[in-house]
Amino acid sequence: MDRRSFIAAALGVFAAPALAQLGSSPSRTRWKVRSSEGFDALAFLGPLAGGELYLPYYKADVDVFAPRLPAAVSADIGALWKDAEAAGFGLLGPSLSVIFSAGHDADLKTMIDAVASPDAILLPAYRSSPYWEEKDWGWFVSVAPRLRKIFETMLDAGFPAFLAERTATLDQRIAELPRSLAGFDVIQQQEKLTG
Predict the structure, then answer these.
(1) Among positive and negative, which fits the CA dihedral 93, 96, 100, 104?
(2) What is the mean pLDDT of residues 126-153?
(3) pTM here?
(4) What residue spans of 49-107 are helical by DSSP H?
């Protein structure tokens, strides 16, 4: 094989994926990038619980916000996290995010209202989702009063203002992300990988 053929073949191998995307069908993945005070509050439960997975990244945030919470509520966040794992519910924040994901995550007030009437507000969407687990719902309902107390306390402690301070440039980044993500068709890649 001469040098020109080798270079052309090598370039063809590297260029093929890019050329394939040029002729591919339009992206079916529709990116919706938005902020969510509720999801941020759920995600912050891990650092507030003292989770080793989270503290290296969020210690400064915990150091600022945790002292605003009564000791009993702080202790209950840690206990609730452990209870969730022991009951097989999984990681508290991510698992709760699934239950609240049908649009009941806008802010802490919305989540407080939802957890106060979970059967009416959260159950219909969760039950019809592919993530429905009766055992998880039973555990969630059993701890709903504790969650409501935690959310109310976070609201009273000024979590919305704390979050706004910590994420001051978030809206600018949210505006940039859809353009950056437009070329990534996750649905197509998942179908390719899973058949």
Answers:
(1) negative
(2) 96
(3) 0.76
(4) 55-65, 71-86, 92-100
